[in-house]
Amino acid sequence: MTDPNHLETEPLTRTQILVVMGVTAVLLLIVAKIWQKLGSIALLDIEFTSGAFLLGIGVAGGIIVASSIIYRLWPAYRRSADAYLELVIKPLIWPDLIWLGLLPGLSEELLFRGVMLPALGLDLTAVIFSSLLFGILHLSGRQQWPYVVWATVVGFALGYSAWMTGNLLVPIVAHILTNLVSSSLWKAGKAVEISSSR
């Protein structure tokens, strides 16, 4: 009998995870560029300012704190997140977490916030719609709906920051830092659990 709290997929190896991350990033970049060209869409501006970096760090901090609170208070989300992170992060070694931050942080932001928001009108409706699609992108099994709900909320925070600032750098920095810090905290927590159970 299958445990409903775990993913329906077999565990992946480190190499498989890295390949999937790389291929997914390239595919998202291709979709973004094709959509941008066919729709004659102007990419959301990227302005390298200290304010944008600081705001991105702040958004990431808010997401990380909210995620840790929800992780502790919502058991269904904790099970869903653990199953997802077990599949994705457990096989990776520490330096791989840099790629886990950079690849999705750049490719997903280019597509969902850089191209999709302007294509859909760069308004609240566009932020909501792109957030829903961002959440669905994180669906890896039927039991993963709590993780998808949280990914949708994160997508909204990232989209809202892009819409309000008009600067794609803000959600890029927030996404990269959120992935990097959250995955590092999860991996460190699992290492502590393993060492304390010995």
Automatic annotation (TrEMBL):
GO biological processes: CAAX-box protein maturation
Keyword Glycoprotein: no
Superkingdom of this protein's organism: Bacteria
Entry's transmembrane regions: 17-36, 48-71, 115-137, 144-163
GO MF entries: endopeptidase activity
Keyword Transmembrane: yes
Pfam families reported in the protein's UniProt record: Rce1-like (PF02517)
Stored InterPro entries: Rce1/LyrA-like_dom
CAAX prenyl protease 2/Lysostaphin resistance protein A-like domain: residues covered: 93-181
Protein name in UniProt: Abortive phage infection protein
Species of provenance: Hydrococcus rivularis NIES-593
Top-level taxonomy: Bacteria, Bacillati, Cyanobacteriota, Cyanophyceae, Pleurocapsales
